[in-house]
Amino acid sequence: MGHTGPVSPSPATPGLATPFDAEAGWMAPSPRLVVVRRAEVAAVAVVTLVVASAACTAAFGLLGGAIAAAGVVVLGVLGQIFVGRRVRSWGYLERGEDLLVRRGVAFRRLTVVPYGRMQLVDVNAGPVERSFGLATVRLHTAAAASDARIPGLEGPEARRLRDRLASVGEAQAQGL
Amino acid sequence: MTTRVPGDGWHRLHPLSPLVRSVRGVVGLVVALGATALLGGSGSTAGRRPSGGHTRLVTDLVILVLGIAVGVISWLVTRWRIEGRTLLVESGLLRRQSKQVPLERLQTVDILRPGLARVLGLSEVRVRVAGGAGSDARLAYLSSSEAEVVRARLLAISQRANKGSAPPAEHLVLAVPPGRVVVSVLLEAATLGTLAFVVALVLVSALVPGASVTAAGVIPFVIVLVIGLWRRVNDSWGFQLAQAPDGLRLRAGLVQRAAETIPTGRIQAVRKVQPLLWRPMGWCRIEVEVGGRQRRRRENADVGRQRRVLLPVGNSASAEHLLSLVATHIPVTGARPPARALWKAPLSYHFLTAAWNGSWAMATNGRVRLTTTWVPLAKVQSLRLVQGPLQRRLGLATLWVDAAGRRDSTALRDRVTPEAARLIAELTDSCREARREPNPPPAPRPDSTPPSADAEPGTVEPTGANG
Questions:
Q1: pLDDT of residue A45
Q2: How many angstroms away from the CA of A121 is the closest CA of chain B?
């Protein structure tokens, strides 16, 4: 069902080209994250469709309702395409002394967090994620702007990553 | 009042202490009482409800009496004594707190005299201990002569305990003349903005027929303006910076002189701010971000505020001198982004520079408030390379260097993409090297007194935040 073991991010979304790309060991979240995100987008789209078409039919008549419905459908399709690309762009790499996370389609980001700077590692899951057995690992440092997180990890992988990060974080921890 | 030589028994603080301690509350209450009395009297409902006014007055008086009662009780339960080589201070009615100050590790004894205390002839004795753990011990308030005697006695005990060597003296680095403080506060954007707003209101009410802005409408803004000015001037009046073995010691304040110490090893970021209106005179402000939970309360300042002002206003010579004490080997001039960054940041392009070396990363930003931020690579929390859609079209990327705190990332903006990509790898390695290096030796001090054994420069105190 799920993937275990390293998976390289798909070359279709290469992301920002950096010297780190050549390193081996880049991992990706589970492919089922795509399903999770598509389900979320579909749910939001259906709700918006109902509400918007009802409101526009009441305000502008049947034609207005139809236009609103068509607009929401188009946005929904675009959203599904975007979501697929966004999920495929996530990747993470555990190195000797730091963790690299890359993500993003429109805003491409690469974050480097040294293990010694990690203050807190937590594992959360939204309701849809949890029903698929996935979880999000989030890192916190003393800087509020650090935003490293990896969604859509399978349960065992999420726990392994959290335990590893916590133990090397403690081993290499430094005062402020 | 005759001077009591403090014997070895328990002593109380001066009886007028609760009055001085609660002066802020009392003044506020009196102002509120006065305001309600005046406004209640001048309103059109004065004839209608005299009984309501009486009830309110009685309530306010009850609150006042309660406040004074609390102050008196806390005075009754507070006592102090000098026992051998320790200063003991006990306080608290429901939860007894007993503070023990070992006098062999005495660092300084300050005598502080806030406004009302000065009028009444009282002083506060504040004792600071090397090692910095816990808060200062305060004896607030004693009569001024008694405070001097106590201070001399504490210093004498500490000298005997340290076998005759005095606590190492502080070395004054710079002082800000008061006139400069006032002019700089007046020239700040916030002041001028509020002033312009008030003037605009007055003009509108005078010139535009039919729009009447009463005096009562303008007064709140004037009050806000005056309070803001007063607070800023009070915070920076008579600012003095001295170099002590355990860090930099700041003293400032017009009505109440407050003192605090900044350990140099804890500095997470250094910032130099040059507002637009200060630039003709070449003034700037230097701030630092200090990490770790501050357990020492600065009087009247909120606990936990991590940004400290090292130089509220100074010319470029004092700024450079101060920077050389706080941050050695910083890059000063930087490289601009390529010309095509003009498309993305047309207004601030001329002010965007960035530079880095083995120990610091620097970036400047801002057209109106030109801000230069230096982050020591040894304190970097994370590095982020970000490229937005417009930047991708132009072949640029921004490298964020995150320092501890809420607002202190510095950004090397709009660099050419391959350069930024190479740079994040380089800086990752440089940060790792900087973290591994042992703490650099302290800056050389002009006097030849060796630092006391207890105050090791560069020692990092353990904090709760990072275990």
A1: 92
A2: 13
* Adjacent-strand bridge partners of B83: B86
pLDDT over 60 (residue B295): no
**Mean of the per-residue pLDDT values for chain B?**
76
* Structure token pair of residue B188: 């700040």
Residue with the bigger pLDDT between B20 and B86: it is B86
Provide the pLDDT confidence category of residue B451 given band limits of 50, 70 and 90. very low
Cα(first)–Cα(last) distance of chain A, in Å?
Answer: 43
Q: Predicted ipTM?
A: 0.85
* Least Cα separation, residue A64 to chain B (angstroms): 34
Cβ B389–A97 below 8 Å, yes or no? Answer: no
CB spacing of B406 vs A175 below 8 angstroms = no
Q: Across the strands, what pairs with A139?
A: A121
Which residues on A lie below 8 Å from B392 (Cβ)?
A: 108
Q: What is the DSSP code (8-state) at residue A21? A: G
Average pLDDT over residues B121-142: 75
Residues of chain A contacting B384 with CB distance shorter than 8 Å: 109-112, 145-147
Specify whether the CB–CB gap between B301 and B315 falls below 8 A: no
- Residue A122: φ, ψ to 5°: -125, 155
The model's confidence at residue B460, banded by pLDDT at 50, 70 and 90, is very low
Which of B421, B432, B466 is the closest to A19 by Cβ?
B421
Q: For residue B141, is the peptide bond before it cis, meaning its omega torsion is within 30 degrees of 0?
A: yes
CB of B412 within 8 A of CB of B399? Answer: yes
Please, which residues have CB within 8 angstroms of residue B132's CB and are 6 or more apart in sequence?
B246, B261, B263, B296, B461
User: Whole-model pTM above 0.95?
Assistant: no
Task: Express each pLDDT in B343-398 by its tens digit.
Answer: 888 888 888 888 888 889 999 988 888 899 999 998 888 999 999 999 888 889 99
Which residue type does B159 have? Answer: Q
Of A20, A97, A143, the CB nearest to B425: A20
Partner residue facing A176 (CB), from B409, B424, B463: B463
The residues, ordered by sequence, that sit 6+ positions from B150 with a Cβ below 8 Å of its Cβ are B6, B125, B139, B142
On chain B, the residues whose CB falls within 8 A of the CB of A109 are: 384-387
